[in-house]
Queue: 4 jobs
Job 1
Amino acid sequence: MNHESSTSLENLLAEDRRFPPAPEFVAQANAGPEMSSWAAADRPAFWAEQARQLLTWSTPFTETLDWSGAPVARWFADGRLNACYNAVDRHVEAGRGDRTALIFEGEPGDGRTLTYAELQIEVSRAANALLEIGVRTGDRVAIYLPMITEAVVAMLACARIGAVHSVVFGGFSAEALRSRIEDAQAVAVITADGGHRRGSAAALKPAVDEALAGGGASVRHVLVVRRTGQEVAWTEGRDVWWHEALEQASERHEPVQVEAEHPLFILYTSGTTGKPKGILHTTGGYLTQTAFTHLNVFDLKPETDVYWCTADVGWVTGHSYVVYGPMLNGATQVIYEGTPDTPDKGRWWEIVAKHGVTILYTAPTAIRTCMKWGEDVPGRYDLSSLRLLGSVGEPINPEAWTWYRRVIGGDRTPVVDTWWQTETGAIMISPLPGVTTAKPGSAQTPLPGIAADVVDEEAHPVENGSGGYLVITEPWPSMLRGIWGDPQRFADTYWSRFPGIYFAGDGAKKDEDGDIWLLGRVDDVMNISGHRLSTAEIESSLVAHPMVAEAAVVGASDTTTGQAVVAFVILRAEYLDQVDQEGEGADVAATLRAHVTKQIGPIAKPRTILVVTELPKTRSGKIMRRLLRDVAEHRKVGDVTTLADSSVMDLIATGLDKPT
Ligand code: WT7
């Protein structure tokens, strides 16, 4: 366990508040206590039953799980289905076409609602438009859009024709987009002129043009949604307006029924090396687990609930809990384009009150930001429609948990702290509302059908009351099927630390009751505002700048964002003078921050840049980030005995007086 984890462990041990489910909630809850025992008795049979109950198959499956090709699982492999049909058409066929599917809130105050019937027409047109520009089943399509209805439609349209979507978060740079397009060999990009962000129109199309100018030769067409109306450069023959393509397309399209193991999407996430991993998810198992968890963890009542997940579709939460889970269950949901403080800090709560949101799913960083803004802000709105709150992305500290329940949930709602990852595809560990007595700060129990444990270095389960590494010991339906184009990296990253079991990369502890408390990453992955970033990726960006000779990046605790990026850089000799002159140091930091923003995106921008003359390394040359984290968090520096040169830390401490 690293230093950071043991500190938070002590804080968490002191947490003894308990929140048993209210009898009124229990009486109406989707989940019951019996579910876990029957799932444990025959895990595959439990999931097969969910797959049959929750999805519509054009060819029913007869095989449940094939683990003979481990670590690549095959679930329901002889069945066929279509994800978009399941998310849209079947609701219309069952007479529920008039139900609102999407309530869109634009940042400037515009809005749009789409029923399931309207959505069926729009996704059919979009599917035909994709076919028209030559996209075929199995092709990859990059999606680079703001949080608007077209993002949902674009993903579903790909699924409808069996094309594989690769959504790239709109906050990522042209360079990040280019590398993802190239890795997946995408044949088309779906983007927009721009999106509304913090009160102004932020352009997106120029990043696509830049990405394709520098590479991306596989791309034949770019579909462009008109959102902001701003000027865009146009490449004749390549660029096509989305609205024109859809207008010309037929509103009828027969969904392509694919095998259960047909790829549904690739989503890139940061790992411990500089190169992002294309996490691959397939169809049948992924849809089964997203539908099941969305129904039971959020206690969804599709006829009456108004659900809102604040995540962007650029992240896995947006895939599983904006697009697939909710729509498979026929939910009515809100999607919001902008930031929580535009035009003012009450915007989220105004949306909750305006649409009568009943279920809210967000991240601890957002909750802590609202805490900072003060409870009088949400206090100005009627939030009494809320009946369940969810949290995801990073450990939620007990203070944020209890604030969330008290101020937003009116001291009434269950709060579910849901642990999962891009790789797991769907929620894995979470309290079940109506069943679990909640403990603030703990994700608590593996869901029915999930086998998770905390183990020591030798893969032995730890005793209750002890900490170790979080692992998943049995295959689950929505597990990743690999890293796009890199089966070896898949095996090495997740399956080699503890042979045969899945290593999540998180530290965890089992309390006296056996409940699981997540303690953060144990590898070189940071978690900034619930978004995963790799230390190595930012380091390689920094050393790509001519000023920088060497760089080391750590995630330091931050009261709002969970962790913040802190970079230690050694400058090349030619630039060192610059730092020595008063005031120039700040320019170094500003230049490097702008450089990382350009290369990766604003979320990767270091909060602090410290210019140093040495970095602490072991004799084998590995940077000891643990020591740098001590410096960044203003702690006494820990054990330095494994350093090649133990005086280095003194040098770093002296260097910190510099005005950077
Ligand atoms: C990492 C996965 C899952 C969607 C958002 C992030 C951390 C996630 C929790 C939680 C403690 C959490 C873990 C995990 N994490 N949820 N409830 N409690 N930690 O997806 O980018 O794939 O990141 O986020 O460290 O490994 P991701």
Note: Residues 269, 316-317, 392-395, 417-422, 443, 504-506, 518, 521, 527, 530, 532 surround WT7 (CB under 6 Å).
Job 2
Amino acid sequence: EQIKKGSYDHFMQKEIHEQPHSLTTTMRGRVKDSGVLLGGLKEKEYLKTIRRSRRLVFIGCGTSYNAALAARPFVEELTGIPVTMEVASDLLDRQGPIYREDTAVFVSQSGETADTLLALDYALENGALCVGITNTVGSTLSRRTHCGVHINAGCEIGVASTKAYTSQIVVMVMVALAVGSDQISTQVRRQAIIGGLSNLPSNVSEVLKLDTEMKELASSLIDSESLLVFGRGYNYATALEGALKVKEVALMHSEGMLAGEMKHGPLALVDENLPIIVIATRDACFSKQQSVIQQLLSRKGRLIVMCSKGDASAVCPSGSCRVIEVPEVADCLQPVINIIPLQLLAYHLTVLRGFDVDQPRNLAKSVTTQ
Ligand code: AGP
């Protein structure tokens, strides 16, 4: 086992640091200057069927659900097709409507999650086109879906999913580029994102340099009882996923929250003790996040702000927040960058709190029972 971990102490740590490589293999042979080529969607004109769909339904659990949520804004923008989000168990509990005119997109690292597979059976019975996005070649998900894309992130061993999350987002961005490739009006935007994908592994290497800074941050949070993470837009999913990592491995209560909902309840929790991470990197929501930060500071909030490089004084003019500066990339790829400091934070918090990183209490890598 130690040989497989190489110079790392834990699989989670290794898998976090592997991301420049795993993202490269996810994109290998698929991202060209001229566009994106996804072999798994080429046959039988699946792309055309997806384009004609009345709705895309993204279905998954845990981190895989969060990856789909991160991709949703870009998929809607590039395809013009509305996207509905479904946690697999909730879709089953409600027996929510799925139609023949829907494309159901199933996201699962293992391809063996019981709820996701049952939701797949349900969508197949209801006549939807079923697309699988998984890391596991030959898994039940890849065998039972009509078509799909493997994320090719390499074997993930740590129970906490890290490199699969970033590869899932990238695959969904590539799917959006492929589905939207017939639209002339989005050509310039598509080209910009393709350029951004090519540079993504080097930007990920850059953000991984925050490791020591995240360890220091973790040591300042070690005794906290709770940690809130506020995000919105592309980075609402980052808030949910960052909080999921913290609670899953560091065994600390943590909640990801939609910053737009702050005044509708969460604001009551704010005081000088509760640590709050606010994600405020550059995108269309930036000025709204600046005002969220001001409102939190006026309630004496203990803030840690994640911002784009060079933006420290723009997000926190008073200098009273702790700031994490990350490289700025295309808005729809920013969640891939922004989750990495939070993965590092969760990892270091776990080690410092003395918990089992790779095998968290009560959890299994793949949840194969309901
Ligand atoms: C991720 O850190 C979790 N271990 C968990 O939420 C996981 O993502 C979920 O169980 C879904 O697994 P899957 O991707 O294999 O379907």
Note: The chain has a mean pLDDT of 95.
Job 3
Amino acid sequence: MKFFIDTANVDEIRTVHSWGVLSGVTTNPSLVAKSGREFTDVLKEICDIAEGVESVSAEVLSDDAEGMLKEAEPLVNISDKITVKVPMTTEGLKAVHGFAKQGIRTNVTLIFSANQALMAARAGASYVSPFLGRLDDISHDGVELIGQISRIFDLHAIDTEIIAASVRHPLHVIQAAESGAHIATLPYKVLGQLVKHPLTDQGIEKFKQDWEQANNG
Ligand code: E4P
């Protein structure tokens, strides 16, 4: 499973990119609004920082397919890393189909059922984003949805990649990986949490102490 970061904060992207683990970036309108910056400016900077990453998702807000295709024009011109993030609606499917014909990658977002994922894949989506945390919030099993989509895609040889989205904590990451997600897009905080273990910290401290004792008396 690959790691994307779910943020529009360029400092967070720069930091995680420096760790060598970053395969992509996802943004959404709420995250861009939080950054307080102009959309195309922030996308340009993200694409510059994220050297070597496969995808930077930029979401369109139009309700109709024609509007989505138009809205995406300046975004896809920024870089070939840009993946257009499209909402899961019939107009979104039409737009995904149109983008696929132009060789433009899409990430269909706000997926909450396996049928939605299958429809998005058949329209030509490069990625589908089932939202784990938001399903858990309403007492549905987000992890089980990832497993279901993964089994269906495997059974029918569908090569659309599954992005586990709306990930809230490290356990979600393990569960998404075990359930067959190709990618998890994670908030900065969760990416940091994956690295930490108290026994690692204690072990580093003990090695240093023992070394100093042996060498400095
Ligand atoms: C995914 O692409 C979305 O940006 C994101 O994961 C949504 O997460 P949230 O439910 O924490 O807002």
Note: The chain has eleven helices and eight strands.
Job 4
Amino acid sequence: IALVACQEKKVKENIQFPSTDLAVENIIPKPFKTIATNSAFGLDERTAIFTSQNSNGFPEVGQFLSEKIKEKINISIPVNASISETVERIIYINQSDSLDLTTKESYQLYITKDSVIINSKTAEGAFRGIQTLRQIIPETSNDTLTDHKMWLIPTGKIWDHPNYVYRGAMLDVARHFFSVKDVKKYLDVLAYYKINILHLHLSDDQGWRIEIKSLPKLTEVGGKTEVGGGEGGFYTQDDYKELVNYAAQRHITIVPEIDMPGHTNAASVSYPFLNGNGKQVKPYTGTRVGFSTFDARKDTIYAFLDDVIREISDITPGPYFHIGGDESHVTKKKDYILFVDKVEKIVQKYGKKMIGWDEIVQADIDTTTIAQHWSNQSNALTAVRKGSKVILSPAKKAYLDMQYDTLSKFGLHWAAYIPVDTAYQWSPGKYLKGIQSKDILGIEAPLWSETISNIEELEYLAFPRIIGYAELGWTTEENRDWEDYKVRLGNQTPYLEMMDVKYYPSPKIDWK
Ligand code: TNX
């Protein structure tokens, strides 16, 4: 209705727009299909946003777009306000059941001189679509076409959908703690590149980072340490809910991880009955792995874990619960198997799907359980043979804590040095022999935090590589090309600078 009303008013002035090319815009991830029509939509203060109003979440997507336009070019665009005399062009965010929209994240973006239309089945799809739109709004206005400022958006059509449903980043807040504010900043930028999962590694040998109300010592004791002897920290359940909500507004799902039965020193320091390595437990602030374990044969362990998993699941709307399961070097194999099988039942009892690092496939895992591949190829194959899906996080390609090269200020290099081109130039669907795209839920880039302790250091390792992983998760292999990507990446500078992201200025990229 708004669209018709607007078109009936018809723009009086017939502006001659300069020629544009939607197909060469710096969009990341690269959309599935683009057709350029070489004119422009003049975004200005006479533009209004309208959204479907009877469907969940669409008005909020419109509001989000309006806020981001304000932040980028400082104009105020009304959302679902009544059509006024001054409105000449509209952006319409429309719920559609068109069969061309094949997934809930699919969207179509139709840009003409008079209107921008985003069609999607769900608010999630609309949200992905407005990220594309944000990316093609220029930083600078054209001040000569009319008597007021106009930001020229190239016209054309984009049809887009993700290649993988799970496009994740992981942040280790256990080795070093990162504040709610830091995580929100990370979420803002992840959302811009259509990442839809943030996995939080909430516990490890060096710290326990989430309040469990029935087990207060976990944070009173286990929350107070971190690598290097700093003060640690933890999220109260309210902090965690705040993060979950902030992520949900960006259509990002939080995946909580409690790492076990290894990587549990901080929990055992808090409640010594948990310890199964036969030694006296004391706080640990080094960076070794593989020395701690829960005592898998004690029933009290499972009562403890029932409390932990229930409390976290209760405040986690997303479908997943990650149980870690990596590097349990001092857990006997039969205890490890017993443990994973029991914990899987608890996770399922609280309505979640279990994810674990690839070692969990040694247990009798359910087909709904997901294995996260990080180093061992045969574990990934076993997962698929058992009917499970796999998340790809190969350390050699996708670990954000690996150094770029020998000059890198932070990071490790036990798996590889990962320069920006190496990070981008691999194909998830072909990476592991015997594992096909249909077995792959998606990819995730983990950022372990042994060597980083603040947001600048986080950003140095994460950016720009995470932007490439966003494209590897979303864009089909046929649409990916390093030479093309590297130009688009170099053109992210205005956005990254506006967001104050302290990215690593890789010499392989021509930064604009
Ligand atoms: C291995 S990857 C680990 C982590 C370390 C990381 C450092 C994995 C499942 N476990 O505990 O932080 O290497 O790169």
Note: The chain is about 30% helix and 20% strand.
